[in-house]
Design brief:
The chain has helices at residues 17-29, 50-53, 67-70, 121-124, 139-148, 168-183, 202-215, 265-268, 309-328, 375-391; strands at 6-13, 35-38, 43-45, 64-66, 76-78, 82-86, 91-94, 99-107, 112-113, 130-131, 151-158, 186-193, 218-221, 224-229, 234-241, 244-251, 254-256, 261-262, 294-296, 340-347, 350-356. By secondary structure, it is of the alpha/beta class. The protein folds into two domains: 6-112 and 262-328, FAD/NAD(P)-binding domain (3-Layer(bba) Sandwich), CATH 3.50.50; 115-261, 3-Layer(bba) Sandwich (FAD/NAD(P)-binding domain), CATH 3.50.50. The strands form six sheets. Strands 1, 2, 5, 6, 7, 8 and 19 form a seven-stranded mixed β-sheet that branches. Strands 10-17-11-12-13 form a five-stranded parallel β-sheet. Bound molecules: flavin-adenine dinucleotide (FAD).
């Protein structure tokens, strides 16, 4: 039987943080529009809590809910993968060969995790001390590894950007370091980062280097993980010196891997993509620079913000305002400032709440110096933000929003992780 084609006012590709939030905001503001989400998964994950799962501070089962439980009322769901885009005819082809026709399209398909790009990783992940907080299935094993380390060498890796939540690779590093310290375990710690610095925003990076010093962590910048031999407990890193690639073999007892990530292949290979494979959009309006009736938000948008759920919360109302303005023939006046937030767990119990916008502009929600690790932000991350996500953001209530550009002295406050 030939699968039947469908039509809607607004098609949303992806039912993750961005797709569900955008649909909910849209339903609130324009209930007359028919909205269809295309999403292959039957579940929806709160990924930001996986960092805490890896530190034994959160139950992984509570990070997952049935997709239908978070689908906004009145929104239709097509439970399959979008295969390709035909933006000149306002059509998306689905995996079963059927067509979804739209008036406007929102692309919200997230980032693709490319585990297979690291030789040997897929075979050893989840055993031999090789763990990762970057998936629902593997995050609990991180905590097993942390608990099991009595002594030896623990390495934590970070691949080239872009990745979801660029602070996440070092969050687990500090929480593991804190655990070892409290238990009096002599563990040698290394942070192997393909990038050139601990964090992309210098204002926060200076404070984070104090945290690194506090725990005696050895940092290796420009160190890119390319292969893992789990049973042999060896990790292979590549560095580039004078244009030459050099390989280094490092022994480990525990290896926390952050996988390489990219735009999803079906976007990369589509007419919607920019040179890097993400959806080409105006960084302020979130409208496609190639097809005016196409918008994108979340991790798959070709914007230079930090890829976080916090960014989605800021983007969704702006993107929806502009999409509706376009329908009315009005100017697209809502502007996204690149806001993102990264709660950097400096220990089990304290956080540096890094909030910033495009070009590293510091934009905290609270007036206190955000470089100072604080216990109140731990409660915010562990209790308030999950509640906000499930009960407000995914329901289309994207406030409160107090972030603002603020100035602080150059001198660091005292950093006590
Ligand atoms: C370990 C970790 C820690 C993090 N910590 C934080 C944090 O502290 N704070 C924070 O704000 N953010 C954090 N994040 C990032 C945050 O989870 C993401 O930025 C957010 O989920 C992005 O939303 P999204 O909808 O763009 O992508 P996702 O939520 O990943 O959703 C994308 C959806 O698109 C679907 N999809 C993919 N391909 C197709 C297709 N072909 N057709 C249809 N649908 C498709 C997927 O199935 C998925 O449901 C963290 C992420 C991780 C992994």
């Amino acid at each position: 039987m030939t699968p039947s084609n469908q039509r809607c006012s607004v098609a949303i590709i992806g039912g993750g943080a961005a797709g569900i939030t955008a649909a909910a905001v849209l339903r609130k503001r324009a209930p007359q529009l028919s909205v269809t989400i295309v999403e292959p998964s039957s579940t929806h994950d709160y990924q930001p809590a996986w960092t805490l799962v890896g530190a034994g501070e959160y139950d992984v089962a509570t990070t997952r809910r049935r997709l239908k439980a978070v689908l906004p009322a009145g929104v239709s769901l097509i439970q399959q993968r979008a295969h390709s885009f035909e933006p000149t005819s306002n059509r998306v082809q689905l995996e079963d060969g059927s067509i979804l026709e739209y008036e406007q399209l929102i692309v919200a398909a997230g980032l693709q995790t490319n585990w297979q790009l690291i030789d040997g990783l897929v075979d050893t992940l989840g055993k031999n001390g090789v763990c990762s907080n970057y998936s629902y299935d593997t995050a609990p094993y991180t905590w097993e590894c942390v608990q099991g380390m009595q002594n030896g060498r623990a390495l934590f890796t970070q691949p080239p950007m872009p990745i979801k939540c660029p602070g996440a690779p070092q969050k687990i590093l500090y929480m593991a370091a804190d655990h070892f310290k409290r238990k009096g375990r002599k563990v040698e710690l290394g942070f192997c980062n393909a990038g050139p610095a601990i964090f992309g925003v210098p204002f926060y990076a200076k404070a984070l280097m104090q945290v690194v010093k506090h725990y005696g962590i050895a940092t290796h910048f420009g160190y890119n993980l390319v292969a893992v031999n789990g049973p042999g407990k060896e990790a292979v890193f590549e560095t580039t010196v004078d244009g030459m690639k050099i390989r280094h073999i490092e022994k480990f007892d525990m290896l926390h891997v952050t996988p390489p990530q990219s735009a999803p292949d079906f976007i990369k290979n589509s007419p919607l993509a920019d040179a890097a494979g993400f959806v080409a959009v105006n960084k302020h309006s979130l409208q496609s620079t190639l097809f005016p009736n196409v918008f994108a938000l979340g991790d798959c948008a070709g914007t230079a913000n930090s890829k976080t759920a916090a960014a989605v919360r800021a983007q969704a109302p702006i993107m929806v305002s502009n999409l509706l303005a376009l329908r009315m023939g009005s100017a697209l006046s809502a502007q996204y400032d690149g806001y993102a937030s990264c709660p950097l767990t400096t220990s089990v119990g304290k956080i540096i709440l890094a909030e910033f916008g495009y070009d590293g502009v510091v934009m905290p929600s609270f007036a206190a110096d955000p470089r100072k690790p604080a216990r109140r932000y731990w409660h915010l991350k562990k209790r308030f933000l999950p509640w906000l996500y499930w009960n407000q953001m995914l329901m289309g209530n994207t406030g409160p929003d107090w972030h603002a550009k603020r100035e602080y002295p150059d001198t660091l406050p005292s950093i006590s992780p």
